[in-house]
């Protein structure tokens, strides 16, 4: 939670520009692009329950993007895929095959080459093989297809890939003068968090806990106990990458590496990362690593980025999707441009290709071209939107391709296919932003079967009520969802506090389903009284309404017309125990503690007035309105220090809403969006707030409507945007 310390102005947001694919020839002619894609789904030596689904889809997606959509295309012959069950894969992703492919890359690499590596599969931990090497006493490992069960302390997990093996391979490639981008979508957690969600086929963590690999818990405990220094405690402001690719300092006298390195990690050492059907809400979607899909979704939307900007975009998408864990990490030459391309101005538009009675487009779901999306038909790529001949509506879409049909839209009739010029372009005109909250029912609990039945009855009643002020879709306990419910007793939860009760309660959990009951991190819950079903129904309705509003507000961050050079936003953190302020790096989610303060700076560099509202979404789904002010063209704004409190802990989000201000209008004030936290106990339902303008749809959306239209402008109408920035609040270490 945040509280005001003092105030003297306001701020703005780094607006994400609406951009698109454009091909650039910014690399040297002699450059060769090479890629190694490793996808491990099947583990023949391990129980089948530990196998995955998504890595193969990751490899297919990445290969398709690199060879068809990248600004610097990869020749298919230079893209090596190691996977079982993927068409065109070279061989199985065994330990030996991976090392051989890494060596081949080093042998083939030339100065100026670009090497992309992507690893999808299970990660885990084991007692360190070299005592004293790891701060926590544990080695992080990636698991190839021939991984076997752990047998002894000295040899470790058979055929596991160690961070040293990755580091040596990357050093060999960089020594040749090639630039390496390394991406790993795997878990590396040795923690024992509890997941209350019933095991389902749709969502899985890419993690094998040490005991899944036959590593005795006492061996892990002994390794951790012997480590010096001990693992970081709560409240420290650092994160550790899952796989250590390079030493912090090169040995004295070592030859400096010629090639650059960027590393993207799906999770830090203590976290897990999921795979699930993507994109969210798409019927029949394949399962992908959430990190892999999000990375290429944001890259497809805007290939004209640095690695740091891409990292920021990924973290913003996680915050928008209420993805509380894991926290991706990004290291290396982050200010280099993705794939080494030149900076170019791009637009979300694509050549129109005719096929029968449909239009084919070289863009799809990754570019947010879901069915129903509207695109303007323009006579040329340089045409203005006011020159639109008509409009298309996406009818079917895959990840990187889609089909569309002419439709009547925005006062123009549907064009005949014959009237579309041969050189026409389709430019994004209107996106759809989903305002539906997908809620997973509580899994069965034999000890509390009556309570589970009562909750399900209340949910059915709410879902069927057309008068409710939120839009929910109920799914089974194991299905993919935005919110998970559980019925259990608080004292049954791991690490429950001393005052935890034995009373049954309905818990409101994040998509991961993971739960903690320690102070400050306890999710919202409602006490269940079998004798008073209305009390449960009313309290559940209140909570779902608040969660729906907070989730919908966050989800609107996908919609922005502004480019970074038009409206800028910067955050500075003042630590309670330090002098001065430190900039908040948008490529990392910062830890903050109670007493820390945040300072917000903004500048309107556009030619138009901009109204700026700042809101704060707590981990308890509270919404706090910080300020609302108008920025004239060319003006700057500062919002004074705001202090973090100890009322809630977890992922919390700063949201900036930036509508263009028409001449003569009143300053847009969104203070009506404020709401208290979702309470941890039952209370009577109150009257819903009335929402207005675009954001009014969050509160007043009819139960039959799952999306709202967001108009994309290119200068012809008022602009607007919603920006989101995540922080992780946690108790200060004692």
Explain what this protein looks like in three dimensions:
The chain has about 725 residues and is of the alpha+beta class. The chain folds into 4 domains: about 190 residues; about 260 residues, Rossmann fold (3-Layer(aba) Sandwich); about 70 residues, no CATH class; about 120 residues, no CATH class. Helices cover about 15% and strands about 25% of the residues. The N terminus is likely disordered.
Write the layout of secondary structure elements.
Layout lengths: L1 E3 L28 E7 L14 H15 L10 E4 L12 H14 L5 E7 L2 E5 L10 E5 L18 E2 H13 L3 E7 L8 E2 L8 E2 L11 H10 L34 E5 L8 E4 L9 E3 H12 L5 H14 L8 E4 L16 E3 L1 E3 L2 E4 L12 E5 L11 E8 L4 E6 L17 E10 L2 E4 L8 H15 L8 E4 L7 E7 L14 E6 L4 E2 L9 E3 L5 H23 L11 E8 L7 E2 L7 E2 L4 E8 L5 E8 L5 E9 L4 E9 L5 E8 L38 H5 L6 E5 L10 E8 L5
Parallel strand pairs: 2-3, 2-4, 4-8, 8-11, 22-23, 22-24, 30-37
Antiparallel strand pairs: 1-34, 5-6, 6-7, 9-26, 10-12, 11-14, 12-13, 15-21, 16-17, 17-20, 18-19, 18-21, 19-20, 21-36, 24-25, 25-27, 28-29, 28-31, 31-34, 32-33, 32-35, 35-37
User: What is the first-to-last residue Cα distance?
Assistant: 20 Å
Can you count the beta strands? 37
Structural class: alpha+beta
Shape verdict: globular
Average pLDDT, to the nearest integer?
78
What is the level-2 CATH architecture name of the largest domain? 3-Layer(aba) Sandwich
For the biggest sheet, the summary is: 8 strands, antiparallel
- Specify the number of helices: 9
Radius of gyration: 26 Å
Classified by CATH, the class of the largest domain is: Alpha Beta
Strand content: 25-35%
What is the helix fraction of residues, given as a range? 10-25%
CATH topology of the largest domain: Rossmann fold
């Amino acid at each position: 939670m945040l509280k005001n310390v003092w105030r003297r102005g306001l701020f703005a947001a780094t607006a994400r520009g609406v951009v698109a694919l454009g091909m650039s020839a910014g690399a040297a002619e002699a450059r060769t692009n090479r890629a190694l894609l490793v996808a491990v789904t099947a583990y023949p030596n391990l129980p089948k329950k530990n196998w995955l689904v998504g890595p193969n889809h990751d490899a297919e997606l990445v290969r398709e993007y690199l060879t068809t959509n990248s600004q610097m295309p990869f020749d298919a012959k230079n893209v090596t895929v190691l996977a079982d069950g993927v068409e065109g894969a070279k061989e199985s992703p065994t330990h030996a095959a991976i090392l051989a492919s890494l060596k081949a890359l080093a042998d083939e690499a030339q100065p100026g080459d670009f090497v992309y590596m992507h690893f999808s599969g299970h990660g885990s931990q084991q007692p360190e093989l070299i005592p004293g090497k790891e701060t926590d006493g544990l080695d992080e490992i990636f698991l190839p297809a021939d991984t076997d069960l752990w047998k002894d302390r000295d040899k470790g997990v058979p055929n596991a890939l160690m961070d040293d093996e990755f580091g040596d391979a990357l050093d060999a490639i960089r020594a040749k003068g090639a630039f390496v981008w390394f991406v790993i979508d795997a878990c590396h957690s040795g923690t024992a968090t509890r997941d209350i969600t019933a095991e389902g086929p749709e969502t899985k963590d890419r993690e094998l806990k040490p005991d899944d690999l036959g590593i005795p818990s006492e061996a892990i405990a002994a390794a951790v106990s012997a480590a010096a220094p001990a693992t970081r405690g709560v409240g420290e402001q650092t994160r550790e990458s899952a796989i250590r690719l390079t030493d912090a300092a090169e040995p004295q006298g070592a030859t400096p590496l010629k090639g650059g390195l960027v590393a993207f990690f799906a999770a830090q050492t203590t976290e897990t990362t999921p795979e699930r059907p993507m994109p969210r809400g798409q019927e029949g979607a394949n399962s992908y690593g959430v990190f892999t899909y999000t990375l290429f979704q944001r890259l497809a939307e805007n290939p004209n980025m640095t690695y740091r900007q891409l990292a920021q975009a990924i973290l913003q998408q996680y915050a928008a999707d209420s993805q509380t864990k894991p926290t991706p990490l990004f290291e290396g030459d982050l200010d280099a441009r993705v794939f080494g391309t030149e900076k170019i101005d791009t637009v979300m538009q694509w050549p129109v290709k005719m096929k029968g009675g449909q239009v084919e487009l070289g863009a799809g779901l990754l570019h947010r071209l879901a069915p129903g999306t509207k695109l303007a038909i323009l006579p040329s790529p340089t045409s203005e939107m006011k020159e639109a001949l008509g409009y298309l509506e996406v009818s079917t879409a895959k990840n990187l391709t889609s089909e569309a049909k002419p439709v009547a839209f925005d006062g123009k009739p549907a064009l005949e296919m014959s009237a579309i010029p041969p050189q026409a372009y389709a430019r994004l005109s209107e996106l759809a932003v989903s305002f539906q909250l997908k809620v997973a029912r509580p899994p069965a609990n034999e000890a509390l079967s009556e309570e589970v039945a009562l909750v399900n009855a209340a949910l059915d009643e709410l879902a069927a009520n057309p008068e409710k002020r939120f839009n929910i879709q109920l799914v089974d306990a194991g299905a993919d969802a935005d919110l998970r419910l559980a019925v259990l007793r608080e004292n049954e939860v791991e690490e429950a506090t001393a005052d935890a009760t034995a009373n049954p309660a309905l818990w409101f959990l994040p998509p991961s389903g993971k739960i903690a009951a320690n102070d400050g991190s306890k999710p919202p819950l409602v006490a269940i009284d079998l004798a008073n079903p209305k009390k449960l129904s009313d309290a559940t309705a209140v909570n779902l309404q608040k969660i729906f509003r907070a989730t919908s507000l966050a989800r609107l961050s996908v919609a922005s017309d502004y480019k970074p050079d038009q409206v800028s936003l910067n955050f500075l953190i003042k630590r309670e125990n330090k002098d001065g302020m430190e900039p908040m790096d948008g490529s990392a989610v910062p830890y903050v503690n109670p007493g820390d303060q945040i300072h917000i700076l903004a500048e309107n560099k556009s030619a138009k007035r901009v109204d700026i509202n700042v809101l704060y979404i707590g981990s308890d789904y509270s919404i706090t309105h910080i300020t609302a002010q108008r920025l004239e063209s060319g003006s700057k704004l500062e919002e004074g220090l705001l202090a973090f409190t100890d009322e809630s802990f977890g992922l919390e989000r700063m949201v900036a809403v930036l509508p263009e201000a028409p001449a003569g209008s009143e300053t847009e004030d969104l203070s009506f969006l404020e709401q208290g936290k979702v309470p941890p106990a039952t209370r009577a339902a109150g009257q819903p707030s009335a929402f207005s303008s675009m954001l009014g749809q969050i509160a007043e959306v009819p139960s039959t409507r799952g999306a709202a239209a967001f108009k994309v402008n290119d200068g012809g109408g008022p602009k607007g945007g919603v920006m989101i920035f995540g922080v992780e609040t946690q108790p200060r270490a004692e």
